[in-house]
Amino acid sequence: MIMSNIIIIYYQTSLLKSSNVYTLYISYIDTHSTIQIMHWYSIIYRVIYTVCIICSIIECLCLTLVYGGEVPETEINALEAIYTATHGVDWNWKNVSEYGAVWNFTDNSINPCISPVWQGISCNINCTLDNNTECHILEISLDKYNLVGSIPDNITEIVQLQDFKISHNLITNTIPSVIGNMINITQLNLYHNSISGSIPIGLSNLNNLSVLDLGSNHLTGTIPTQMGDLTNLIAFMVNHNELLGSMPSEIGSMSKLLVLLLDRNDFYGTVPSTYSNLINLEALDISHTSLTGPYNLEFGPDLAYVFIGDNYISGTFPEQICTCTKLIHLSIDDLLLVGTLPTCLGNFLKMTYLHTSENLFTGTLPTEVGLLSSMVTARFSYMLLEGRIDNVFTTYIPNLQTLELSNNHFSGTFPSSIFSPKLETFSGSQNCFVDAITDHICDASALETLDLSGLTSGSGCKQNVQLLGMFSVAMAPNVRGTIPSCIFSMPNLTQVSMSGNGIRSTLYEVNSPQLRILELSYNRLVGSIPISIQQKYDLLKLDMSFNRLDGTIEHMVNYSSILNTNTEEEVEVALVALESNRLSGGIPGQFMDSNADVNILGGNLFECPGERLPKND
């Protein structure tokens, strides 16, 4: 090859949709023989021809991926109707790079199914691979997008729609009855909106429906009995509405149900016996209604979550539940149950939440409860239980965060095993714990709420005391011991309630930075109020009334959280109560005009210059 030869080759591939013809342009300047030029032309032609064929294949694929199939105009119009009817201009769009493109109806060439796909939209997968395949929208998922408005009727134009999920928005008006014609729907999720009206009977036509969530709306009327025809449902949720009437027995025909949530409605009557047919059920919530009668249902072995509380259900503990060894959460609180708690509670080794409070159970707390090593929350308050709890909680329950034992007749002491490092809330008030307060409380380093009020004030431990030989009064014994000083240095403590114990003790400096409520009334506390308490300006409630405290309160000049409350909620909580002590000296001026409840004058020896006194005392 001679260097003086200058050969300029230019090629251009142009895909012509009608004939797929490629054109090759070659220009050259020749200073040598035609034979030499033809030789090089032959070689270069073959190379370029091969490159063009490869490029054409790649370009065809790329163009197919870009343009794919078209979405029917009726479906685009339906999307635009949804956008318009729910104030799409105010939607909360998510990150475009992660969630897809913003909806755009100004450019007719944009395909919502082709990359970048519109947010909340899913289509049939082959519409992006085959130029001859029509695209169809299969899913609309716009949870928490700030949709405000109503669902338009022409949503039915999206004929192949399978999933329609618009939870946590502000959808109003009613559920369009025409949705009952969308036979391909498998998931309909309208949870947590402001939808009113009744449940359309037409929804019972959606034979492919597997998930129906209408919870947390304002639906009224009854549940149509025809809903029992939805035999493919695995989740039926109409909780948190204003539905009334009896629970339809036809729901028992939904044999595939895994989740049934009917709670927080105005249902009445008994639970239909047909619900025992729901042998695959894993979660049941019929709480906070007005159901009556005994609970006689039987369920399969997979039941894990049971919420029955806050009804008028009577009888004894539902023994049928004892066979559900996979239970994780059991709430049977605020019922009319009698008898004793069964030992089968120890069978629930996966149990994390057990709530039996506000019933009429008697007897002791089964020792098997202490074996529930997975327990996170245990509530046994407001019942008639008795006996010692140190026989129950003999070892740490490692993940226990909440333990409530208040308003029973428990006695003995608090075992150290209760106060594990993860415990956040403990209540033992209104019982018969005479020797309960120990330093072990401080082992619960995560403790936030400690309620030890009236530890000996349970009705079962009061003693009759003769007064003047004329009449007797039932009085609770005083709690022995003192207040452990370490309590007031616990880093996460927000509330300490130890009123009504008759404890003889002095007060200690407070070093708990999160403490907002301190209640120590009706004890026998002596000495002065520590400066750290008087200067703890972020307290919301301080009650040390009915003690034997002396000294002054001159350092209480910056109680801004309590004394400068403005909102109704703050005023309801805010309190400074120091009456019936032996306090003296002056009253800080901040107390005079406070909106909070101030009780400091009675039973003290304050100096009151002039006639100005706290206005709310």
Folded structure, characterized:
The protein is of the alpha/beta class and 617 residues long. Helix content is 11%, strand content 22%. It has six helices and 40 strands. The strands form eight sheets. It has a 20-stranded mixed beta sheet. It has a five-stranded parallel beta sheet with strand order 13-15-17-19-21, with no helix packed on it. It is globular, with a radius of gyration of 37 Å. 37% of the residues are buried. The N terminus is likely disordered.
List key phrases describing it.
single chain, 40 strands, 22% strand, 20-stranded mixed beta sheet, disordered N terminus, globular, 5-stranded parallel beta sheet, 11% helix, alpha/beta, 617 residues
Summary, kept brief:
The protein is α/β, with parallel strands linked by helices and 617 residues long.
Secondary structure blueprint with pairings:
Elements: E1 6-12, E2 23-29, H1 34-67, H2 73-85, H3 96-99, E3 121-123, E4 137-141, E5 148-149, E6 163-165, E7 170-171, E8 187-189, E9 196-197, E10 211-213, E11 218-219, E12 235-237, E13 244-245, E14 259-261, E15 266-269, E16 283-285, E17 290-294, E18 305-307, E19 312-316, E20 329-331, E21 336-338, E22 353-355, E23 377-379, E24 386-388, E25 402-404, E26 409-411, E27 425-427, E28 449-451, E29 463-467, E30 471-475, E31 495-497, E32 504-506, E33 517-519, E34 524-528, H4 531-534, E35 541-543, E36 548-551, H5 560-563, H6 568-573, E37 575-577, E38 582-585, E39 597-599, E40 605-606
